[in-house]
Amino acid sequence: MQITSTVRPRPRIGTQEYPANPALDNWSKTAEFDSIPDFFRAAVEKNPDGDYVGAKVDGEYQWRSYREVQKQVDQFSSALIEAGIQPGDRIGIYGQNSPDGRVATSGILQSAAVFNGLLPEYPEERVEFVLQNANARMVMVDSPERLQAVLNREKALPDLETIVVTGDVDLKEFKSSKNLVSFQKMLDKGAASLEKNREEMDKRVDGIRYDDIACLVYTSGSSGTPKGVLVSHGNVLSSVTGSMQVANDRPNETLGNVRFDDTYPSVLPQGHVMGQVAEYVITAHGGRLAYPASLKEFTSDLSTLKPTVLAVTPLFLHKIYEGIEEKAMANQEPVISPKLAGLGAGAAGGALGAVAGGLIGAGIGGQALTWGLAGAGFALAGAAADAWATKFAEKMTGAEVFQSSVNASKEFYQAHGDHTIGQRIKHELAKKFVWSKAQKVVNERTGGQIRTILSGGAPLATEAETAMRAMGFKIAQGYGLAESSGGGMVNNPARPELGTGGAAHPGTELRIGEGEEIQMRGPTIMTGGYLNRPDKTSESFTEDGWYRTGDTGKIVKATGPVSPLKLAGLTALGSGAGGAVGAALGNPLLGAAVGGVLAGTATIFSGLARTEGQDHFAITGRMKSQFKLPGGEYVTPEPIEASLQGSPYIARSLVVGDDSRDLVGALIQPNFETLTAWAKDNNVPTEPKEMVKDPKVLKLYSDEAVNRSSNFRKHEVVRRVALLDHELSGDEITAKGEVMRKVVTKNYQEQLDGMFN
Question: What is the enclosing helix (H) or strand (E) of 71?
Answer without folding.
Answer: helix 66-82
